[in-house]
Amino acid sequence: MKKQRTLPVLLAALVAIACAGAAGATDAAPGHAKAKQGTTTVQRERGADGLVDKTVTGPKGGVTTVDRSRGADGVVDKTVTGPKGGVTAVDRSRGADGLVDKTVTGPKGGVTTVDRSRGADGVVDKSVTGPKGGVTTVDRSRGTDGLVDKAVTGPKGGVTTVDRSRNPDGTIDETITKTRP
User: Fold this and answer.
1) Mind listing the pLDDT tens digit for each residue in 51-63?
2) CB-based contacts of 137: which residues, under 8 Å, 6+ apart?
3) What tens digit of pLDDT does each residue of 139-149 get?
4) Residue 101: count of CB within 10 angstroms of its CB
5) How distant is the alpha carbon of residue 9 from its chain centre?
6) Which among 162, 166, 150, 160 is positioned nearest to 180, based on CA atoms?
């Protein structure tokens, strides 16, 4: 009789331990992101210039403001003030080719420029010069199947190519090839 009573009790104890262990394992798993406590609020309002500005209050009370304005060239610029007072300015302008270029000045003074241009095949390419002077180029081209492929050359000379192809059922595959400098 004793064996019959101890077996269900033993099984119940093992299940309870396994459940408690699994709950603790999910809390302590380093690869899983946990939701932050608190609430983030976003308040949008139309400014005097007619553009939508916003104020974001984070869960710890930090406030980030985004002020959009229309520049003399008619393109929308913005100024972002972070919770610690850092200011990032994004100045967009229309280039001679009619595409929108931009210059981003970061809170520590670093400047990043993005220059877009239309290639001979009509697809938009771009060149990005980072705050430390490194240049990344993105050369897009339209393949024979009508999909846009691209080749990205990084600031240190590495090249990544993306070749897209359409399958008979209409889905799109892509082959990514990376070459180190």
Assistant:
1) 999 999 999 999 9
2) 125, 126, 127, 128, 152, 153
3) 999 988 889 99
4) 19
5) 52
6) 160
